[in-house]
Amino acid sequence: MPAMLLHVDSSADATADSVSRRLTARFVRAWRERHRTAEYRRRDLATTPVAPLTAA
User: Fold this and answer.
1) For the chain, domain boundaries
2) How far apart, in whole angstroms, are the C-alpha atoms of residue 56 and residue 53?
3) Dist CA 33 CA 37 (whole Å)
4) Cα(36)–Cα(42) distance, rounded to whole angstroms?
5) Of 18, 27, 46, 54, whose CB count within 10 A is highest?
């Protein structure tokens, strides 16, 4: 199975001042450099929140 990285940002601070966002971005750059053919997906929960789940 090919490698895949799911990058989830959940910091309410969506600006460049967010330490956690800068740290994960730095990790992602290094990881993608080493895994050029791997799949990469990013989700930003501050800009696109997950919809509430229902019992259906």
Assistant:
1) 4-44
2) 8
3) 9
4) 16
5) 18
